[in-house]
């Protein structure tokens, strides 16, 4: 097996494996075989299975459209970009985030896996708080607004994963964002 590691292929294999069997049942041996690398090489490079998963997760978030989110001054456009970026990341990388969120409470050593996700949540929160400061959104805790914006999308994806026959309605991002804004736009007095 080659000493060169195609990290993109490797990290996608990590994500695929976690998506299929969860973190606990994902093995470095299976990942190494599927990615075409030696398991010993993985341990030399990443130290532990958790180190490998952490590197994969950091790569996923860094390569996702979630990293491109910035405050633009156009509320609706920014919210659409947030929704689109989350959906695209979820489509590309499956349900890694909900899986990690569900498994971390059972294994505190996995808390490090949350860092990239929490960084993204922090960035989204800052965007929303800026619109609140500018008087365009109602004042509420930033994380509550992020949860209200992304929560239904996360639940929908989790249901689709748990029940593959569940399709739900196709999400129209524009209408979804408008509905979110309907309950959160600051009304000028």
Mean pLDDT: 87
Name of the CATH homologous superfamily of the largest domain: Tetracycline Repressor, domain 2
User: What level of helicity do the residues show?
Assistant: 55-70%
The CATH C-level name of the largest domain is Mainly Alpha
Radius of gyration: 19 Å
- Poorly predicted runs: none
Number of helices: 9
Percentage of residues in strands: under 5%
Number of domains: 2
The largest β sheet comes out as: none
State the secondary-structure class.
Answer: mainly alpha
What is the CA–CA distance across the termini?
69 Å
Q: Could you say which overall geometry the principal axes of the C-alpha atoms support? A: elongated
Give the number of DSSP strands. 0
Account of the protein in words:
This protein has 189 residues and is an all-alpha fold. The protein folds into 2 domains: 7-60, Homeodomain-like (Arc Repressor Mutant, subunit A), CATH 1.10.10.60; 64-182, Tetracycline Repressor, domain 2. The chain is built from 9 helices and no strands. The protein has helices at 7-25, 28-35, 39-46, 49-63, 75-93, 96-103, 114-133, 142-162, 173-182. α1 runs antiparallel to α2. The radius of gyration is 19 Å and the shape is elongated.
